[in-house]
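Ticket closed. Logging final result for ATPase inhibitor, mitochondrial.
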Amino acid sequence: MMRTSVAKLARPALLSRTFAMTARAMASGDTGAPPKTGGQGDAFQKRERASEDYAIRQREKEKLRELRKKLAEQQAHLQALSDHIDEITKEQGGEQN
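Final structure:
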């Protein structure tokens, strides 16, 4: 019994203390705080939303450009294959053209 109480006294108080942090609460008028009415918000939020929407649109445009490029490449490849098939069938006398 004596040994455990001495060990407790020997421990520094900082080691036994838990580190808890509270979440930072924003007041209703603070910049970046959500509006009470659920409206658009302040100018900072509008500008941030517009910036994010612009970035998303730019990424989508880039993806569409890449898809169109791949589609054009695939169509060109299919046309080349179709021309090759036509050439082979004409050489073998399959079509009388």
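The CA atoms of residues 89 and 95 lie 6 Å apart. No further action required.
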